[in-house]
Design a protein that fits this description.
Helix 3 packs antiparallel against helix 15 (351-383) and helix 14 crosses helix 15 (351-383). The longest helix is centred in the C-terminal third of the chain and has 33 residues, at 351-383. This protein has two domains: 1-37, no CATH class; 53-58 and 72-201 and 247-396, Aldolase class I (TIM Barrel, Alpha-Beta Barrel). The chain is of the alpha/beta class and 397 residues long. The protein is built from 15 helices and ten strands. Helix 7 links the parallel strand 4 (144-146) and strand 5 (165-169). The strands form two sheets. Strands 3-10-9-8-7-6-5-4 form an eight-stranded parallel sheet. A two-stranded antiparallel ribbon has the order 1-2.
């Protein structure tokens, strides 16, 4: 796809360019100035339908970036398929007229146990980008985790969330650079650091390589630019993510670096990307307060186990000593209930949020989160659970 076509389709998807205006402009009328359109509430009944709306609106290069997995996408598929194997042994004759979906994570109360996972480059999906996502998280009563690869500044997201957000971090080879970024997130009001630990190198996502993934002009991983005078767009080389952003990773990262990180911040450290019980136990020794059982949405090590499959052993390994969260493959509120039954305190969702964002901006993200909340609420009622605390492994037989 030519760059101009990519940009035009991106504007159409985002609601910033009407089809009529585009046709007139192609006819050679320079007087036509596209007018922004308000985001429409997409008529989707579930996340799968919302994805189809997003697919129709997004340029192929952006849709493939968001939906792709590593290599043969085995883990991407198994993240979904493993939920279907878990059956709900529901309770009957329980008064479920009143239900409470709220829970508390690291001292923050959320209205339902589904949070926004860190995902990159939201302005590829909508011009409001991470601000739309942040406002939707606030309006639905949950927490957004801002990605290091955000296209919106930390400070803007902090303001949009009333400083009720977490920040996802890749520890850079340059530790002073990392120290400055941590201090900036802490100063902005972040309530936790989510450190991605499954990425010594980028996984190979062949869709991105084939498409020559790059950011269009005007977009950059803005929080990785330290000074305004260096504010050049990164990732616009058409080389794919692995080449464009390899500079930000550190293949020498070890457990001792978690000790270093704990020594430079007062924020709780949550490590994201754990799939083994023994790694979870080691985390207890290095200042870590929580873990996200995750395989990076199937985007790093292909053939890694589905997160829902390894969650129980990790929960059993750490007991109450660590807060355990989980992401990966959640497309139904019922999936979230199964993860909580397996011991997760809450779950995080990434792609469903992106599909909502592409479909309708802030309204679309709120739609996605509301779909999941409504499905979880119904699943709880049908299974005889009046609150999140009553969701446990007994439900799974």
């Amino acid at each position: 796809m030519k760059r101009i076509d990519f940009l035009q389709k991106a504007l159409l998807a985002a609601g910033g360019l009407t089809a009529g205006a585009l046709s007139s402009a192609r006819a050679g009328n320079p007087e036509v100035i596209p007018n922004p359109l308000p985001p429409a509430d997409p008529e989707a009944l579930n996340i799968f339908e919302l994805e189809q709306v997003a697919k129709e609106k997004l340029p192929t290069i952006a849709y493939d970036y968001y939906r792709s997995g590593a290599w043969d996408e085995v883990t991407l598929k198994s993240n979904r398929e493993s939920y279907e194997k878990l059956k709900i042994h529901y309770r009957v004759l329980v008064d479920v007229a009143d239900r409470d979906l709220s829970t508390t994570v690291f001292g923050q109360k959320i209205s339902f146990p589904i949070m926004v996972a860190p995902t990159a480059f939201h302005k590829l999906a909508h011009p409001d980008g991470e601000l739309a996502t942040a406002r939707a998280a606030v309006n639905t009563g949950t927490i957004m985790t801002l990605s290091s690869l955000s296209t919106t500044t930390i400070e803007e997201v902090a303001a949009a969330t009333n400083k009720n957000f977490w920040f996802q971090l890749y520890i850079n080879k340059n530790r002073e650079y990392t120290r400055d970024l941590v201090a900036r997130a802490e100063s902005a009001g972040a309530k936790a650091l989510v450190v991605t630990v499954d990425t010594p190198m980028w996984g190979r996502r062949e869709r991105d390589v084939r498409n020559g993934f790059h950011l269009p002009p005007g977009l950059s991983a803005i929080n990785l630019v330290k000074y305004d005078k260096d504010a050049v767009a990164k990732g616009q080389t058409g080389a794919g993510l692995g080449q464009s952003f390899a500079w930000m990773l550190d293949a020498t990262l070890q457990w001792k670096d978690m000790d270093w990180l704990a020594g430079i911040t007062k924020l709780p450290i949550i490590i994201k990307g754990v799939c083994r019980a023994d790694d979870a136990r080691i985390a207890l020794q290095h200042g870590v307060k929580g873990i996200v059982v995750s395989n990076h949405g199937g985007r790093q090590m292909d053939s890694a186990p589905a997160t829902i499959d390894v969650l129980p052993s990790i929960v059993d390994a750490v007991g109450n000593d660590l807060t355990v969260l989980m992401d990966g493959g959640i497309r139904r509120g019922l999936d979230a209930m199964k993860a909580i039954a397996q011991g997760a305190k809450a779950v995080l969702v990434g792609r469903p949020v992106l599909w909502g964002l592409a479909a309708g901006g802030q309204v679309g993200v709120e739609k996605a989160l509301t779909i999941l909340r409504t499905e979880l609420d119904l699943a709880m009622a049908l299974s005889g659970c009046r609150n999140v605390r009553e969701i446990n492994r007994n439900l799974l037989g």
